[in-house]
Inverse folding.
């Protein structure tokens, strides 16, 4: 009898906890594993694809959990008069971005994250950002 009462109380407490969960605390977490800094494609698959999708169009596995839909990374050149905005992309990867009218973006600021990986030098962090940017240039729609 005591076991049944205890089990019922635990189930009710657990259900109440989920029912009153604070949605502002629900954050998307992307596991960041150190991959080779020379492969922009591999870094994209590990760091960007969960949100932006394997094809870069913004339909990644966790995209629906975000308040602001991820950017279609294949349209960056088209949105900039046919020129890939390399300095803007490097700046966003390094420092993050702000979406006009909605405040800050949900995208992680990759510069510090990439710089805190085990035994990462400032040169390697920059190499990662540059190679990731170069890969994004290759997926632009013509």
């Amino acid at each position: 009898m005591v076991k049944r009462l205890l089990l019922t109380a635990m189930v009710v407490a657990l259900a109440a906890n989920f029912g009153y969960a604070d949605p502002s605390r629900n954050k998307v977490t992307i596991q960041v594993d150190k991959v080779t800094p020379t492969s922009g494609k591999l870094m994209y698959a590990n760091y960007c694809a969960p949100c932006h999708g394997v094809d870069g169009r913004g339909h990644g596995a966790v995209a629906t959990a975000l308040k602001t839909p991820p950017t279609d990374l294949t349209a960056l050149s088209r949105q900039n008069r046919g020129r890939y905005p390399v300095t803007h992309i490097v700046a966003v990867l390094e420092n993050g971005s702000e979406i006009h009218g909605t405040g800050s973006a949900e995208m992680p600021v990759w510069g510090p994250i990439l710089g805190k990986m085990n035994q990462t030098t400032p040169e390697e962090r920059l190499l990662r950002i540059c190679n990731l940017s170069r890969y994004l240039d290759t997926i632009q729609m013509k």
Confidence is low (pLDDT under 50) at residues 5-9, 11-25. The helical segments are 2-19, 40-52, 86-95, 110-115, 122-138. The domain at 29-138 is CATH 1.10.760 (Cytochrome Bc1 Complex; Chain D, domain 2).
